[in-house]
Specification:
The chain is mainly α and 103 residues long. The protein has four helices and two strands, in the order αβααβα.
C-alpha cells in the first residue's frame, strides 16, 4: 500500500513530502515517463484528478485504520518539495535521516 510505511513500521524514519497542488499537477501532466497513468487534456483536469484521489485515499485510511495520513505529526520529517529539485529533496532527507539516527 503506497505511503503506508509510517503506520505499518512505526520505528522507521517517517518522511512526508508535500507540494503545492498546482506544481504537482504540472509535474504529473508534463511527466513523459508515466505511461500507465490516465492522460488529461489540461493541467487543471490533472489537478482535479489529483485532489479527488488524495481525498479518497485519506478517507480510506481513516475508515480502514483510523488514521489521517496527511497529519504531519505522524512523521519525523516534513518537506515541502514545491521549489526543490529531486537531488535537493534527496539531500535534505539524507541530512535529516542522519540527525534522526543520532537521537
Amino acid at each position: 500500500m503506497q505511503g503506508f510505511g509510517w503506520y505499518a513500521v512505526p520505528q522507521s524514519f517517517k518522511v512526508y513530502l508535500k507540494v503545492d497542488i498546482n506544481v504537482a499537477a504540472k509535474r504529473v501532466f508534463e511527466d513523459k515517463v508515466r505511461i500507465n497513468e490516465r492522460k488529461f487534456a489540461s493541467i487543471e483536469e490533472q489537478k482535479v484528478d489529483i485532489e479527488k484521489r488524495y481525498k479518497l485515499e485519506n478517507e480510506r485510511y481513516l475508515e480502514l485504520y483510523g488514521v489521517r495520513k496527511e497529519d504531519e505529526s505522524n512523521y519525523d520529517f516534513v518537506l515541502d518539495t514545491t521549489y526543490l529539485t529531486p537531488d535537493e529533496v534527496a539531500d535534505k532527507i539524507e541530512e535529516e535521516y542522519k540527525k534522526w539516527l543520532e537521537k
